[in-house]
Write a structure and sequence with these properties.
One of its GO terms (molecular function) is protein homodimerization activity. The protein has 183 residues and is an alpha+beta fold. It contains five helices and eight strands. The chain has two domains: 89 residues, Orthogonal Bundle (Arc Repressor Mutant, subunit A); 74 residues, Winged helix-like DNA-binding domain superfamily/Winged helix DNA-binding domain (Arc Repressor Mutant, subunit A, Orthogonal Bundle), CATH 1.10.10. Helices cover 37% and strands 15% of the residues. The longest helix is centred in the N-terminal third of the chain and has 21 residues.
Length: 183
């Protein structure tokens, strides 16, 4: 078993390939690389979901280094994995980050929209006004999968819901203070 005590998710069960050094080097044979990318894609998505990671920095993402076997992915391998995540609709690079910050979509944006709406309806929030910050990280959303979501991601979800006329977004008194009313 891989020593995962250095990870924030110490109870996460890593797949066998994670202890296999060649997986930390891009494979030159097309079929082998496709399998490698598939394994990394599944690992990144399952790890981020289990540890509630919504975004990571490619240069410092702890999953891209396995200290127990003294291996880490080089920059081109990290980029290849991120590109593969994005190509499969499971990730996107964040604007203004120079490609260094990656948003992981362990739920599709449509699934996140449903999740937020389901919460609002389940908890009787129709007609209520909340700030984006409250939706992302307040005691009212404790236990919800979207708790801890970056406000920029929540805002993107809410903007789509607004176009569908399911919420109304308005500017608060502060420049960064957005309010949302569930319709």
């Amino acid at each position: 078993m891989v020593d995962s005590s250095f990870f924030s998710g110490g109870g996460y069960a890593y797949p066998d390939f994670y202890a296999y050094p060649p997986y930390f080097t891009l494979q030159p044979v097309k079929e082998t690389r496709e399998k490698q990318m598939s394994c990394w894609r599944d690992l990144v998505v399952s790890f981020t979901r289990a540890n509630r990671v919504f975004e990571f920095e490619t240069k410092t993402f702890e999953l891209f280094e396995n200290k127990s076997i003294n291996r880490s992915l080089n920059e081109s391998a990290r980029k290849a994995i991120v590109d593969d995540l994005c190509a499969h609709g499971l990730g996107e690079t964040c604007e203004g980050s120079g490609g260094g910050t990656v948003r992981v979509l362990w739920r599709s944006l449509q699934e996140w929209q449903s999740c937020v709406l389901d919460w609002a309806h389940r908890t009787g929030r129709r007609g209520d006004v909340l700030t984006v910050e409250e939706l992302c990280d307040s005691s009212e959303v404790a236990g919800e999968e979207f708790r801890g979501m970056p406000p920029s991601m929540m805002e993107r979800i809410l903007r789509t819901l607004e176009k569908q006329k399911k919420v109304m977004i308005f500017q608060g008194t502060d420049q960064d203070d957005l309010g949302v009313k569930f319709l």
